[in-house]
# Entry
Amino acid sequence: MKAIELTGLEGFESLRVVEADKPKPGPNQVLIEVKAAGINFAELELTKGKYPALKPLPYIFGFEAAGIVVELGSQVKGVNVGDSVAAIVSSGGYADYATADAGSLIPVPKGISFAEASSIPVQGLSAYALLKFAAKPRSHETVLVQAAAGGVGLYLVQLAKIMGARQVIALASSRQKLDLVKNLGADTAVDYSEKTWPDQVRAATGGKGVDVVLEAASGEVGDESFKLVAPFGRVVFFGARNIHDTISSEKIQQLIYKNQTLIGFNVPTLGAEKIAECVPELLKLISQGRIKLFANTTFPLVEVKKAFEAVSNRQTIGKVVLTP
Ligand SMILES: NC(=O)c1ccc[n+]([C@@H]2O[C@H](COP(=O)([O-])OP(=O)(O)OC[C@H]3O[C@@H](n4cnc5c(N)ncnc54)[C@H](OP(=O)(O)O)[C@@H]3O)[C@@H](O)[C@H]2O)c1
# Structure
């Protein structure tokens, strides 16, 4: 089969198209014929060595995939050959075939394409779990979403409203992205490539500031977002970019004086039980059409470098997908 291997940690240039053996499912696993492999921002960071390598190099890359079950491990029950599923995979999703634990399969909801479904295992469930277990927006609160037109961002904008926030302020860097997040229910969309963006956010809250910052940007955007937090507000950290630059003694001082809270969130260490709680709740919202999925940017598997280039250059909106 065709697959994409990560061969080094020099960025996405280290990704190579290879011929590999089809993986074999273990007793509690299934084999999936991949129809769509989702790209995640963390994978770009992984290619640069910013996260610890998942396995010894080289290995077949890709956290997740959506496709059709074509083989069952000897102990698997409750799954059938032919089922349409999405999953965090065990063997690498950027490939014609991938294995996944049978217990972690997410059924593809009716009317949802494989490309759209590939956004559910990582981006959709991360956004849902982040709001449910960490941010917990309340009915009088304003939530600030950075990179709101990204994969996680589009879910956060929609879910924050559904899960109770009074006001969602979405940050993005182009007219097209701003229009989309507004259409999806953001009360205010602000272009954070403009110098005055913090003033625009403050004005949208009547000068009060925001109650919750969903923080993945760090750098200047992270610093300015922090200053926008209202008294008794909170910042949920979920991106791992340049964390060492993000928390300064001035910020700790602000937290103390303004009675604010810092919260960390990481979906891979959240635990299977909490994720399992989120799956039916999120799938219900998707099936009801209350959450719209966006996966219009697809690249053939063999053009993986072009796909990563587009992500790197901030040219993409929503889920970015590789199709074998
Ligand atoms: N903690 C967790 O469990 C968890 C789980 C999933 C994801 N995450 C984190 O959530 C964040 C979003 O992930 P994602 O997969 O949704 O990302 P994505 O779809 O690739 O979205 C990336 C968006 O980020 C913005 N951006 C800002 N600075 C950028 C830069 N230097 N390079 C490229 N894009 C930049 C761009 O939008 P603009 O042009 O509008 O700025 C871009 O559209 C990442 O930091 C990821 O690590 C964390």
Summary: Residues 40-42, 122-123, 126, 147, 149-153, 172-173, 177, 216-217, 238-239, 241, 265-267, 311-312, 314, 316 surround NAP (CB under 6 Å). Residues 120-135 form the longest helix (16 residues). The radius of gyration is 20 Å.
